Description:
This is Peptide ABC transporter permease. With 1016 residues, the protein is an alpha+beta fold. The chain folds into six domains: 12-45 and 187-381 and 843-972, no CATH class; 55-168, no CATH class; 425-541, Barwin-like endoglucanases (Beta Barrel), CATH 2.40.40; 551-637, Immunoglobulin-like (Sandwich), CATH 2.60.40.10; 650-719, Sandwich (Immunoglobulin-like), CATH 2.60.40.10; 727-833, Immunoglobulins (Immunoglobulin-like, Sandwich). It has 23 helices and 45 strands. Helix 2 (13-48) runs antiparallel to helix 17 (836-876), helix 11 runs antiparallel to helix 17 (836-876) and helix 17 (836-876) crosses helix 20 (943-969).
Amino acid sequence: MSYLRVLVGRWSRRDRLAVLVIALTVALLVGATLLVVAAGDQTSSLADEYDANASVASYDSVNAAQEVAGSDAVVLPMATAASPDGEPRRVVAVPDDTAGLDLPAQPNGTVGPGSESTEWRLEGTDGSRTEPVEPAGTSSGLLPPTWLRTTPDTLEAVGPTDALVVSPATDDAGAGDGTPLVGTLSFFVDGTDDVLEIVWTGVAAAGVIVAVTLSSVVRMTIRDRAPTIRVIRATGAPPRRVRAALAARAGALAAAGGVLGYAIGVIVTNAAVTVAVVVGLPTTLSVQVSPRIAMGLLGILAVLTGVGLVTGYLTARIATAKPPAHVGRDGQPSGSSGLSSRLARDDARSWRRLTPTVLAARTVVPTTATLSTFAVIVLLVASLGAIGASVSTGETTISEPDTSHPVNSQVPAGYAEALAADGVAASPEILLFTSYEEQPYLARGVDYEAFADVTGARLVDGTTPETDGEAAVGVELARTLELEPGDELVVGGSTEEALTAVTVAGTYETGGLEDHQLLVSLPTARHLSTVEPGAVNLVRTEATDRSLASGTNATVVDVDVPSHVRPDETVSVETTVWNPTDDPVDREITATLGASETTRTVELDAHERRTVTIDLEAPAAGEYDLAVGEHGQSVTVADAPPLDLLAFPETAPSGESLQVHVRDTAGSPVESATVAIDDRTAETDAEGMAWLELPTTAGTHDVTVRADDRELNESVQVADDVETNPAADVSVSPDSPSIHTEPTAEIRLTNPWNRTVETHVEIEGPETVHREEVALDPEETTTVTTTLSHQPPGEYPVRVTAADRTLASTEYEVVGDDRLVSAIAASGHQQAGGGLGSAIEYAMGNLQVLLGALTGLAAVTVVGATSAVLARAVRARQRTLAIYRATGASPRRLLGIVVADAIRIGTVAAVGALLVAVAVLEGLAAVGRLTAFGITLASWPTAPVAVGVVGGGIALTLVAALVATVPLLRVSPASLLSPSRANSAGRDDGSPAGRSGESEPHSDDSPVQEPNHNSD
């Protein structure tokens, strides 16, 4: 049975090369599986860190809403209301039981925006009526503050036009039909799932190529054993045993290649994560082989081994079905086949230069097949790259420095006004991540006219949105969500619970990524996000070809100065200047305060934003307007600082007694100050405190504070249904913690009312929510502390709330090294996420690592697969190579001929692979499988991507040609003319064929061309 050991156990160098080729192709499947599963698990982990998500859905009638509403859901009947000016608003009926949702309490009548009682007209399906509307004294909770709120009976009188169903949270952050109340989590969870489905499609295509490559390599290794099979069969070995032995050999080769490919796949994926950490790319991917992944990989390896066994058996069956003398002797050349021979007969030299000299032209077909995998994955990666661009800032945007993501940024909306004053179009924008029916999409809060000026958006259908209740939708998103002008869309909050309903006023087109987005008004976006009034996430500026190098284009974007200064003292004006140009500029900034004027020159690099201090001498006492560039600010010059009311509420219950604290702007208490509201007055004591009796009539009341010649005017909105809350002050220590420090938030609560206050106080910080019930007697003070979690570098807010009202807030900054934080996260020593902004950052970083690693793995796989294809082509022409060598061609010259052939074949194959890849993506788009994050990915590549695919395909073909050719050039021409000797030179297995002296017939697929050492 020595021949069985030879067939099964003795492998040549060529066999080991075959194992390597198989391993390189298997590495793609293993690496892709590890990356896709890890990305999915990490996205789920990011979502699991946050509370489950409630959802809201819209229905055409109350009956339809009640039919689908669950037992814990809340149905909100809706209708339309017209203001005294005729402006339409939504009116919603609030039920008694709101199922623990953050909905406002049912009002006694109808309440709405504004500070005075007015008459509104309610309009429904059964008619209309005029209804008195009182100022809303309580928070609107989830509902927009611009909506009217009334009782179900009041709305039933006019007939509801439609209804909302708000379903409580479930354990699944993306669960529920309709729109999630916190859209960011669903946006990234559902969007990442879309991406992974697309990636799985590419991996499936790669799996087919892997199977084909494996089959090809196995057939080639068995055909290499034709001399051995002849000897064994001629000495009496039965065909059945030979087939079994060769099948076992093929299975062993496939299994060995699979195991090695597993190792390569694991190493490459972990290396990709390590490189991402080193270069500072945020990622939480941890590529570990869990039991679940191990079972999947074992299944893949088992299938590949099975493919090897079956292919080996079928190939051996064909070989052993012939008489021993005919094994391997069916490759005789046909004297007239082949494109090269026909072209030679036609003597078309120009065409001959375009056809391979040595390799067969038909090699283009299998090479195209293998390069198609690479092309499909590269096109998918290039298309998916648009996703990151859609949620990131670019060089023509202004965002807050050192924030982990634009959604964490808050900059003054006035930046856009400053740019507009200099003639530069600018669009203040708020980013919103939301989802509808598990279809994620990006929304923006914008001023539509400013947005259109920057992006060149043009209306395709409908009209420009004019009110907060209207929106514009990009043509691509309109196609995805099946929206058209006049349709209503429910939109949930982005980073905190909220909801609203907007009417699509029109559809627009920009020709860019904005066509996949929804545009709402800035006030609506602030309701759906945590962006403060007067702020935006970013300001986008126009990209212009005109020179912006002149100094006049450096812009003053912010001015900070004390509101009070003493006469003749130095006033320090903090001025922020921004250079929006591509070149360094010098800008002269002039600041004036009364008769005092100072000019300073500021040097700014391209796109630099810097804050400088300008000192002025304060004029005599009085009220002055400080002017710096286009910015102005009121400054009081007086010996005594202006007055201030500490923690004075915006709303208060009627008829209550409120303790007021009068301070000056320097923080000192003001004694003997008079506090007046209507005809009621009170005087402060030595601590600056006084008890003030509030009016019993609802409405907005003026509050006047006087001390000496100083006066302060405030207002308070008095209503019957306002809850009393404590006054609060919050601080964080240390002020600037490191990434290793857990800072402490300290909240000082004081009861300013003349009755006991009992409430639940909530402290919200990054990854921290601390709730505590407090009970305070009048004038009592207590302190609440909580420990905040470790965070990456950046700025983080801390907010104190009670009964849906913000009592106090502050920010603190964590300092440290971003790369260290990313390394900690990737190693698993820290839970992923630093607030929703960090979750967004890490989710996008994970996708970048995934796509980059897949591209690298695809390149490695194509080299292996193409090497197998070209190895067969080169070995089929080894007689031609031998003649070249025998007639004086050096190995280097011969290698040059093969490389030239590889370039010709690679060029045609790469172009063909590009066309195949485009066809695959077109097919995915046709069945709706090419959409992720609400963006329909482009199936046609851009010119740079197409050139990259073709160039990459040619380069990979060259590498594969070198791998396939170099081993043959190391043997003598005589060995190439005698395949059995060539085989023995290429192996050390001691097989019978190596000693038999039998020679193989010429197996080239076309006549041998006459060597021309001066050509090509």
